[in-house]
Inverse folding.
């Protein structure tokens, strides 16, 4: 496994590998890897000749009052895990390498971002789309891997790939969970002990939505109210949003129909957690 | 020569050619080709295994009161000229093919566009940067060719390639001129007969700037006044802008130093013409 920090070296390496007809699977991350990332790396390993992991805590996707500096980091552990999983390259540029000065161009999202995290975190998805445009051109992968915990990110990336015609296949991996249902997340380390046990109720609440829908409930408002009640009564967190939308277009729905996302963000003292469930209504 | 209109076919063709290690030279245009385009196609022909010409009048780079519908078109003549010059592919998508619906993402320029055409044509360079991002991913060229008549466009493309790490070399071709000095432009056909002869004074005025600088004049204000006077006294056109800036960063200058652009836009009855001259001051 090679660790590369310079953009020009990474791009040269990838162009050389492409010229030898190697297929490239790419897992972009902000590091502090957990089982969710590991499952994406395994999937990438199985489906490609070469696997590239990027580790870059992207300042552009953090708001001024967000946890950029506090975002957890452990490069040595990430390195070890990546190697165990058969990763070929880690691309780990510095912020100065990625943003050496004021940019001439950025990507601006114009759909799918007025709701959910896009609403609570203005500019977040512009930052995501900008850094991915850069990374896609540096790594030039055949397949890119994202976890469905960040379902809105997956929807935005789908739009980015389609609109800009990146010849890259998007592979969305299922959310990996703790035994009690909590979605794995790098930010889970910042939960206080009581918050950690409460946090399992986010997924329990989402499962209630699934059960209500399976039992024939079609009203988004009724399901939303029930889900909110479970979270409110069982956690000390603040609900940042709880929305029921079409997926992947993320449009409002009154009556459940087709592919639907039930998505929640809950703010605890030092961690804001997100989770979601996708329902397909006949 | 093949004419391709579908994005998916163009991209498939290019990926196939790239897999055979062919180098690709790309000349993006809005069609109605003139000698300026021809010189870029010749350059591309000399420097690459394959030459791709795109012809697409990009609605995104026209403002609401601009000449999108009136922009001159002659596909048959373009086709013939391209074939004579040894072009391998013409990519000529429809507007619906390039913009099938509301976009999810666009490129936004954040530098080099508050002056010159960027100031007179708000959103113009966002449209240019967006369509080029799309075209670069469809065509995946090794080299891309632009004419220096559109010097600000060259500066914006340089920023786009650098910031988004497109592994593409930018080749800027010298402005091709009529015998009297008028820069070749698709829009010249819209000049009235008297305007056509007056229009030569734009370049004469720019040459005066060059002569003044060569004679030791360092004051941007003095040169600007002299150039404006020549245009004003010899044409019926309205000066849209006349600016003296650093190149390619396009920043204001008081005293001439380093690489400098003197750029003008003049509005005639049915055509707005631009031209520029680059000076290198010791």
């Amino acid at each position: 496994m090679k660790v590369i920090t310079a953009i020009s070296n990474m791009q040269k390496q990838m162009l050389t590998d492409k010229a030898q007809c190697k297929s490239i699977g790419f897992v972009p991350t902000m590091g502090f890897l957990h089982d969710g990332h590991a499952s994406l790396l395994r999937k990438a390993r199985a489906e490609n000749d070469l696997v590239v992991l990027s580790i870059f805590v992207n300042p552009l996707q953090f708001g001024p009052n967000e946890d950029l500096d506090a975002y957890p980091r452990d490069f040595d552990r990430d390195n070890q895990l990546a190697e165990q999983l058969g990763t070929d390259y880690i691309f780990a540029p510095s912020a100065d390498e990625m943003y050496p000065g004021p940019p001439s161009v950025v990507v601006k999202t114009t759909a799918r971002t007025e709701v959910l995290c896009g609403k609570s975190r203005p500019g977040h998805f512009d930052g995501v789309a900008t850094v991915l445009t850069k990374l896609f051109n540096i790594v030039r992968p055949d397949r890119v891997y994202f976890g469905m915990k960040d379902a809105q990110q997956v929807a935005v990336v789908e739009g980015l790939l389609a609109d800009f015609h990146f010849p890259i296949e998007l592979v969305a991996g299922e959310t990996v969970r703790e035994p009690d249902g909590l979605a794995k997340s790098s930010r889970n380390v910042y939960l206080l002990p009581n918050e950690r046990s409460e946090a399992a109720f986010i997924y329990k609440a989402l499962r209630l939505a699934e059960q209500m829908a399976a039992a024939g409930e079609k009203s988004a408002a009724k399901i939303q109210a029930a889900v909110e009640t479970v979270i409110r009564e069982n956690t000390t967190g603040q609900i940042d949003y709880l929305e029921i939308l079409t997926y992947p277009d993320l449009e409002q729905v009154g009556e459940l129909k087709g592919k639907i996302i039930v998505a929640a963000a809950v703010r605890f003292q030092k961690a804001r957690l997100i989770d979601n469930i996708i329902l397909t209504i006949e």
Notes: The radius of gyration of chain B is 19 Å. Strands of chain B lie at 2-4, 24-29, 50-55, 89-91, 105-109, 143-147, 169-173, 238-246, 258-267, 272-281.
